[in-house]
Amino acid sequence: MKNKFSKIALYSTSQGESVISIARQIFEILSNVEVETLCDDNLSGLEELIGLKSLSTKAIVEKADLLIAIGGDGTMLNCSKKYGAKGIPILGINLGKLGFLTDIAPDEITTRLIEVVKGNFVEDKRFFLEAFVQNQNQNESLIALNEIVIHSGAIAQLIEFNLFIDDHFVYRQKADGLIVSSPTGSTAYSLSGGGPIVHPGVDAITLLLMFPQSLSTSSLLVRADSSIRIELTNPQLTAQVSFDSHDSLTVKGIQEINISKSTSVLNLIHPLDHDFFGGCRNKLGWSSSLIGSLE
Question: Which among 41, 65, 73, 166 is annotated as catalytic?
Answer without folding.
Answer: 73
